[in-house]
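Form P-L/3: holo structure prediction, ligand zinc ion.
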Amino acid sequence: MAGSRMKLELSRVVQGRSRLGVLKGLGRTGQHSLDVPGCLLYTHFGTVPHLTQDTLHTLSNLPSVTQITLSNIAEHQEVLEEFKDGFRKFAGLHDTVLYCSLHDPATSCPTGYTTNKTVSVWGSGGRIELTVAKFMALQRTVQPDWYQSMADGETWQNNTSRKRVRKSVDRTLTHLDECLLVHQKSQELERVEVFGVVEGGDILEERVRSARETAKRPVAGFCLDGLQTGSMDHVLRSQLITAVTKELPEDKPRLLQGVGRPDEVLVCVEAGVDLFESFFPFQVTERGCALCFAFDISPDPERAGRAPPAVLELDKEREMAGEPQPNGDRNGDQTQMTPFEMNLKDKRYHDDFRPLVEGCGCYCCKNHQRAYLHHLLVTNELLAGVLLMIHNTAHYHGFFGALREALAKDKLDLLKRRVLGERGGQAERKD
Ligand SMILES: [Zn+2]
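OUTPUT (holo model):
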């Protein structure tokens, strides 16, 4: 950690909080960069679910940072130690920055298992208890470019007591100090960056204390934990994130864990968040759905014509079916369909010969129709997951591109109206 080379260069800050910029100097040699607001590439054990490396790289504009999680990796520690050359080589990854987080954002962990000295992660074989020594041994074996420090993140449920929240902030700071101590003595981790974790549940003073104290440590960036979808009321979450980001240094990135829905991403960017995890397209794929929300803010009539037309039409169908509207559901069940996707298992698609999203340039939309995807899904063909994941990944990363464009061109309000489905009747007039 001899002087962090990671550097966040902000080109614009809109309304005091939404940040546009580039995170530079990433990776061992410092040659990679990542645009913010942006997201990391979500993987299971180094692989984007359903996609081979070849298939993945048919997609353009992929993030330069790949996220792996210790919950996947901890149970393979011995094999990795024997392999010796680090996780990147083990998983056949080449030109990417590797970020190692504690938990998988797409699955929720049972609570009640942390102690003063340990946190637990869940792999396919069950629970694995990590001490700081084991956690750091894993980092030395994995050899990531960044990693999230060990943290007690069990205080996201809104009935957590103040005492328990305070304890989680204290423990997380202690874990960070202990990790940093080991880190600084480890030659293998010399060029590796540490992200400190901000906890504090839904208690403002604890959030602020956690942010201030973490910012005093030599960390390269910050993970905002315990604010995931479903953990609390959205207004409260925005207030907490705003209060936290105010305490953090301008020149270091803030990664929000466990938030992926496009409407929530927009709100959290407005509260000062830079980075997200891209588990949302995977969840959408797993329920047999395709992302179809609009995000095109281009004034170019040719491009504007490519805005996905599916959304308005879907909204009408939803209204009739009594389904929730964007921003309407607050139950936080991450397995539930959101208003940003279409359910291709639905019978109505069995003879729908349009692409998933008109104008989408992905392999799936260029070569297949909704009816074919419907057939693959109802017959449980593996190709369904592959094609959906291609489209959903392309669509989601396209949305982040549009978000950056909107910040650069002062069109965030227009983008919001697009994403939320043009409600309000004013949206089509100008811009
Ligand atoms: Zn597509």
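COMMENT: The two ends are 46 Å apart (CA to CA).
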